[in-house]
Automatic annotation (TrEMBL):
Organism per entry: Edolisoma coerulescens
First and last residues of every TPR repeat: 40-73, 562-595, 596-629
Keywords carried by this UniProt record: Coiled coil, Repeat, TPR repeat
PROSITE patterns hit by this protein: TPR (PS50005), TPR_REGION (PS50293)
Coiled coil start-end: 3-39
Protein name: TTC37 protein
The keyword Coiled coil is assigned to this record: yes
GO biological process: RNA catabolic process
Highest taxon listed in the record's lineage: Eukaryota
Gene Ontology cellular component list: Ski complex
SMART domains according to UniProt: TPR
InterPro entries: Ski3/TTC37, TPR-like_helical_dom_sf, TPR_rpt
Length: 669
């Protein structure tokens, strides 16, 4: 076949392809290759025809052969790109990206429009594969090309915005280079915006600031962006809110931070971040109840702020709301997710605070949960304070050997650690080794004098050690007073002071004041509530007693606060108000249906009201629960007599007399 015949065969192949006669085209190409096995065009035409005949492997082989022959010719690369772009081609995205890269190289000095088209395709491909760095670098090449061509500012602005859109999901798995390219895109988009200030520019600025807030190392850039936006949009609270949340997360409230907080709250008193920051300020100023209120309110508006949840838990711990503190720590941990970088520090703090709260709850289940929380603290095993907490959790769970082992190890490795001596004290106290406990708590106080709990436990040690230390004003009383002074929210310290003034000093009025304070601090403290009511009655101050009882019963859920319902029911019974007594005693029984004395009192209330049948049932129930309640059995017999059930009444009287021969009311009955 002559050169002329080769050209004619290639022309025939081209015409056959144009007429969609692909098999015919292949025949012509094969004829050419017999003569010229390295004919570039013949291999390209085979690739094209084979692709149309759904023979992708043959097509791919033909294009690659052509590329091998002429690596810088366009046709084969274009054909290979078209082949890989077909929907039936799978697992070729990596190869297609390489083809696009080569096409960009070939188009660069020629057809700019085609270069841009391929560039767009390559970026789309990288975006599907979530190769964000490649997306950013390729899109920047496109922008550079447009700049060289003298593109208008508006077109470049749209291209920078498109780059932001392409990279917006990259912050979830951010490498530093991609992050920097994204931030650069934001800065260029902001500079190239047409209308400044304007709505689009404002929204873009907000997105830029939100993006910056996800980069812990870009603090200076974030602060500058917020201040620049405030200059342009002085009525916008958003940059101030972001700054405030940044200060919260940094863990410091500087003068600059306090200025931002006050400025934000002046602008918008209902701002979630502003209220959160105010709550943290209250916490730092030891206004714990105000801190809890503000942080709770702020988190209802801005709940995805793990540091704020931690601060709320801290404030709740200060006022001894331990169960609420555990819930807040859980919220912090949920918001943090799988933490890394600065968030890891917050996660460790939240886990430690959760464990401390659970240890204060002081039951075995809470102790088990505390141990699990402590195990999750990164590098917690090397932290002696974490080890001391683990020892306390073991102690609460009843695992004395493990607690003692930790205590001994800590005292050897960290003899100056207050928590190590305190743990030893808790162990001795639980074993009633009061002499040893005294030494341990004195050592703990020497190392850390400002801890109320250590003074309280030293006071309790003196209380149970001997009558001498119990009554010595310089021992138990002094320690309880110090504990109450150091922690004015520690209800149990005021309860112990009440015990001292009532049982040792005989000062009912002062004792009542202490119990009342203890109960105000902890409404679940039945001992203090009951003592405050009883002492008020003894002091002839029924108004105070009723105020306490009314407050408790007014808030009580069904089946709770038995002591308050019972006390008020007995008061109504004594003061001739049987209907009110019945209602309260029934409420008390809902909390504890097996209290025989309560059933007896209810029977008395029904009797006073004239409800004889129900009174009879109540007295019978009381005697069933406690056969030793002779009065209830007698009352049942008397009611049977009133109701005309004489035989039953006689039998019941005889039953009483078998047990108690000289029980006069029964003989009389």
């Amino acid at each position: 076949m002559s050169n002329k015949e080769v050209k004619a065969a290639l022309k025939s192949a081209r015409d056959a392809i144009r007429n969609k006669e692909y098999k015919e085209a292949l025949k012509h190409c094969k004829a050419v290759l017999k003569q010229e096995k390295n004919n570039y065009n013949a291999w390209v035409f085979i690739g094209l025809a084979a692709a149309e005949l759904e023979q992708p492997d043959q097509a791919k082989g033909a294009y690659k052969k052509a590329i091998e022959l002429e690596p810088n010719q366009l046709l084969a690369w274009q054909g290979l790109a078209n082949l890989y772009e077909k929907p039936n081609q799978i697992d070729v995205k990596g190869d297609l990206a390489d083809v696009y890269e080569k096409l960009l190289e070939l188009y660069e000095s020629g057809d700019k429009q085609k270069w841009c088209d391929v560039c767009n395709k390559l970026v789309e491909l990288y975006h599907q594969e979530r190769k964000y760095l490649e997306v950013a670098e390729t899109w920047q090449k496109l922008i550079r090309m447009k700049q060289e061509e003298g593109a208008e500012k508006a077109e470049l602005h749209q291209l920078w915005k498109k780059m932001i859109q392409l990279l917006k999901d990259s912050t979830r798995n951010q490498d530093n280079k991609t992050g920097q390219l994204l931030l650069t895109a934001f800065e260029h988009a902001l500079k190239s915006a047409d209308t400044v200030p304007g709505e689009d520019h404002q929204n873009l600025y907000m997105d830029f600031i939100q993006c910056l807030s996800k980069f812990p190392h870009e603090v200076a850039r974030l602060e500058k962006a917020c201040h620049d936006m405030m200059s342009l949009y002085p009525t916008m609270s958003y940059p101030l809110e972001v700054l405030c949340l940044h200060f919260v997360h940094s863990g410091t409230l500087s003068e600059k931070a306090l200025h931002c907080i006050s400025r934000l709250l002046e602008m918008d008193a209902s701002s979630g971040p502003g209220i959160i920051c105010f709550g943290i300020k209250c916490l730092k100023e030891k206004k714990y109840k105000e801190a809890v209120e503000s942080l709770t309110e702020g988190l209802q508006k801005t709940n995805q702020c793990p540091a704020a949840w931690h601060y709320l838990a801290e404030a709740q711990m200060k006022i001894h709301e331990h169960r609420n503190a555990v819930l807040s720590c859980n919220q912090a941990l949920e918001a943090l997710g799988t933490a890394e970088g600065p968030n890891l520090q917050w996660k460790n703090l939240a886990l430690q605070l959760k464990a401390e709260s659970l240890i204060k709850i002081a039951d075995a289940d809470a102790a088990e949960e505390a141990i699990k929380a402590l195990e999750q603290i990164v590098d917690g095993s090397s932290d002696p304070v974490v080890s001391a907490l683990r020892g306390q959790a073991y102690l609460n769970k009843g695992l004395m050997d493990q607690a003692s082992k930790i205590s001994q190890e800590l005292l050897l490795s960290h003899p100056d650690l207050a928590e190590a001596h305190a743990l030893e004290g808790f162990i001795h106290y639980s074993q009633k080794n009061y002499g040893q406990a005294e030494k341990s708590f004195l050592n703990a106080i020497e190392k850390k004098a400002g801890t109320a709990e250590y003074h309280q436990y030293l006071g309790l040690t003196y209380w149970f050690m001997s009558d001498e230390t119990k009554t010595d004003k310089g021992k138990a009383l002094t320690q309880f007073l110090k504990a109450a002074k150091l922690d004015s929210y520690l209800g149990s310290a005021f309860c112990y002071l009440g015990n001292y003034y009532r049982d040792i000093a005989g000062d009912k009025s002062r004792a009542r004041g202490c119990y009342k304070k203890a109960f105000e601090l902890d409404e679940t403290d039945e001992e203090s509530g009951t003592a405050a009511v009883n002492l008020s009655v003894e002091l002839g101050d029924m108004d105070t007693a009723l105020t306490i009882l009314n407050e408790v019963t007014g808030k009580a859920r069904p089946g709770t606060a038995k002591w308050a319902w019972l006390h008020r029911g007995l008061y109504y019974l004594r003061t001739g108000q049987p209907s009110q007594a019945v209602a309260d005693l029934q409420a008390a029984l809902r909390a504890d249906p097996k209290d025989s004395n309560c059933w007896e009192s209810l029977g008395e209330a029904y009797l006073n009201r004239g409800s004889y049948s129900t009174a009879l049932k109540s007295f019978r129930k009381a005697s069933e629960l406690n056969p030793g309640l002779v009065y209830s059995i007698y009352r049942a017999a008397a009611l049977e007599q009133i109701l005309g059930k004489y035989e039953n009444a006689i039998a019941t009287y005889q039953e009483i007399l078998k047990k108690t021969e000289n029980y006069v009311p029964a003989l009389k009955g």
